[in-house]
Amino acid sequence: MSETPDSAVQTATAAVRTYIEQHRAAFLDDLAQWLRIPSVSAQPEHDADVRRSADWLAAALRETGFPEVEILQTPGAPAVFAEWPSGEPGAPTVLVYGHHDVQPAAREDGWHSDPFEPVITDGRMYARGAADDKGQVFFHTLGVRAHLAATGRTAPAVNLKLLIEGEEESGSPHFRALVEEHAERLAADAVIVSDTGMWSEDTPTVCTGMRGLAECEIQLYGPGQDIHSGSFGGAVPNPATAAARLVAALHDADQHVTVPGFYDGIAELTDAERELFAELPFDETEWLRTARSGATYGEAGFSTLERIWARPTAEVNGIGGGYQGPGGKTIIPASAMVKLSFRLVAGQDPQHIEKRVTDWVGEQLPAGIRHEITWSAATRPCLTPLGHPALQSVVRAMSQAFGTKVRFTREGGSGPAADLQDVLAAPVLFLGISVPSDGWHAPNEKVELDLLFKGVETAALLWSDLAATAV
Amino acid sequence: MSETPDSAVQTATAAVRTYIEQHRAAFLDDLAQWLRIPSVSAQPEHDADVRRSADWLAAALRETGFPEVEILQTPGAPAVFAEWPSGEPGAPTVLVYGHHDVQPAAREDGWHSDPFEPVITDGRMYARGAADDKGQVFFHTLGVRAHLAATGRTAPAVNLKLLIEGEEESGSPHFRALVEEHAERLAADAVIVSDTGMWSEDTPTVCTGMRGLAECEIQLYGPGQDIHSGSFGGAVPNPATAAARLVAALHDADQHVTVPGFYDGIAELTDAERELFAELPFDETEWLRTARSGATYGEAGFSTLERIWARPTAEVNGIGGGYQGPGGKTIIPASAMVKLSFRLVAGQDPQHIEKRVTDWVGEQLPAGIRHEITWSAATRPCLTPLGHPALQSVVRAMSQAFGTKVRFTREGGSGPAADLQDVLAAPVLFLGISVPSDGWHAPNEKVELDLLFKGVETAALLWSDLAATAV
């Protein structure tokens, strides 16, 4: 008598849990070993540690069973690539993305224990990288083993690939080139990014997209040197004034961005998406406490969650010009500077935005103010439609693991996931189990062990579901 | 047979010139001696030099014949006061103002010779302080001697007082208090300021007023710390944006200042004054070269000279907030800062301006942006009406010395002259012989010797004229 699909899932889940329970202690020991390697990509004195971290992970993946594991060199820190073919014709290919480098951390920043000596207390593991991102990368190792154990397979139900980069905390400067170089080996039907979080311990969520990012610096030049504001004030253009007026002119009174063409091609929120956002147990007071801001502020007609997840922004990250020391100095400054960043949403093309902003800036400035505008490498937005079958697989696996309804979020930030989406032309799904209190980039970073093992479970259940779904 | 007034002046002028010619070499030797003292008030390592400069001047004034000379102590650098009563009942009292401290100077800034070792070349004396202001203070010593020699008097025709401060190049922090403390001794019917310049060598001019100055720093606070522009961008107020919008909102499209009440009480330019400005041989291209600006820019309806001499301004001297280092940083900054200065013209009251600007700033900021505004000590504007008899005396003496028509200018900057005007309730006249090429505050400062001796002549002729004029 064959089981119903539901009872098959229940059986698989039970088997997965049994396997995880048996391997729990060894898994935590291994993770702790990895966390002891201070793979801080931003600090050159840790270059050797980042390489050691890649080597450690490569060995761990080989031990997990991946038949093909390789260190991929970049001009910076190395990435780790691993592949485990399903062996079944027609099986979908999935690429898991994460990173093995971590943020800087020092005991004197306020850590209660050595950031590179993991401590388990009250069901949490404290260490730099515990949540961001070693813990979330590592749950895939036990995940795939549990998947094999529960299904009796010797290879995963999907062609499973992992790409774990080593420069994410340094802005992934070589990531896109790496993906382009190895595009054929990395080719996948779906990308699973395990470098995000969920709403809260009680509210598991799947992120469906990230905003993109375009960044520029505008240098403004007025007089050939700082000049006396008494002798010349009121009769020549002031570059600090010009900088301020540029920033002020970026938005209208409703906080819409005024740059012509800025909203071209944008994917407007559907009513269904807005309803899903509104369903989340959002506490604005609590959110403001996290933001440490005294008030919300933004584009008219949108809620706070809509503003940070689904609306583009024009933000000034830095401004400077003239005399900034103590006291006064009655000058018209020779120059000023503005750093702007634009968060972009699905449908917006960074190159188009850069061109439109560049044109607009040139039109704003009076005679006598020269300028230079420099754009940094942009990140495209990414968004997976709610109805995408691979997204549905992730939701089912996660619901099963957590035993509750899974909701949807987006991410206001930007990340290299978009490069995978672009270069590999594959949808990006986010499987992250971190919670806001985990302290990414902060002292006393931790991962909740319960959630870590829910991540293992989700990963263990996901491959069978994806293989059964046309992705 | 008595001489006609004109021929009396001719005779006096000839006598003055003869006397000056006889004492020219000794005068330059003495001035060079004073210029060798590096009385840099802004540099604490020169405190002793500033005191030595005051002592040197006091001795020189005693030798000139001033019966009363005293060093006036302040919490900072000392000033020198000297008085020479006329002895004639009803003689007017005149106070000459100047300063004995100088700007910093170092050979490596681009000086062709040691800034504190005067060099005479091609009719110019090069040294820090040659024009600003030791040369212009010192011409009064030979001036009063020539006045006595030419008139056969043993005391000046006016009650002559000198107040030569030692902190002008450091913003005169104790000057007003000094004037208030010694107001009775300093009391005068007119103040002669010898710390300005004239239009050019060919166009002698008298300055009739200076702009006032109010200065503030505005600190703006947003989130409690720099926050991630991905996680929060678009949904909280950004203090750098608020700073920029404040600056941008200061002016309307015609570059009028928008702060309500800013123009209250202002003395509008008369047609006669505008015509006098327009008569000056103003070369805008040359002026832009001096300003090192690519274009003029300012309040609609006013010429460049009107803008800098007779119109108030709102200028940003410094702005800063967020990340200003190399590359980008995707933050919403915790704070930002703006330094504003307002040049004021006759009729504007600094306290009224401070109140109006303070109120206005408070009204501009959104919820979630806290601010603090700090005002520095203000300087009032000063303006002597064209028809004032003492001003006419200065014009006559200068015309006679230079042998040509004297025109009128104003000064766009602000200075302690206004404190004398206020505290002593006396009109301020400007007798300055420096020219724009003299390089105040710059390397290779110099004074034109021809003009220096025209200053001596003017001072020598002025006291008789003032005594004969009801001031």
Structure description:
Chains A, B: InterPro entries: Cyt/Met_Dipeptidase, Peptidase_M20, Peptidase_M20_dimer. Chains A, B: This is Succinyl-diaminopimelate desuccinylase. Chains A, B: One of its GO terms (biological process) is proteolysis. Chains A, B: Keywords: Hydrolase, Metal-binding, Protease. Two copies of one chain form a homodimer. Chain A has 471 residues and is α+β, with helices and mostly antiparallel strands. In chain A, 36% of the residues lie in helices and 20% in strands. In chain A, α1 (5-35) packs across α13 (449-468), α3 crosses α13 and α4 (175-181) packs parallel to α12. Chain A is globular and about 85 Å long. The model of chain A has no long low-confidence stretch (mean pLDDT 95). Chains A and B meet through β9, β10, α6, α9 and β11 of A and β9, β10, α6, α9 and β11 of B. β11 (313-322) of chain A pairs antiparallel with β11 (313-322) of chain B, so a sheet runs across the interface.
Characteristic key phrases:
18 strands, 471 residues, six-stranded mixed β-sheet, Alpha-Beta Plaits, alpha+beta, homodimer, four-stranded antiparallel β-sheet
Distance between the termini of chain A: 29 Å
Using DSSP, what is the number of strands of chain A?
A: 18
CATH topology of the largest domain in chain A: Aminopeptidase
Cross-sheet strand order for the largest sheet of chain A:
1-2-6-3-7-17
Low-confidence stretches of chain A: none
Strand content of chain A: 15-25%
Structural class of chain A: alpha+beta
Largest sheet data of chain A: 6 strands, mixed
Q: Give the CATH class of the largest domain in chain A.
A: Alpha Beta
| Radius of gyration of chain A over all CA atoms, rounded | 25 Å
The overall number of domains of chain A is 2
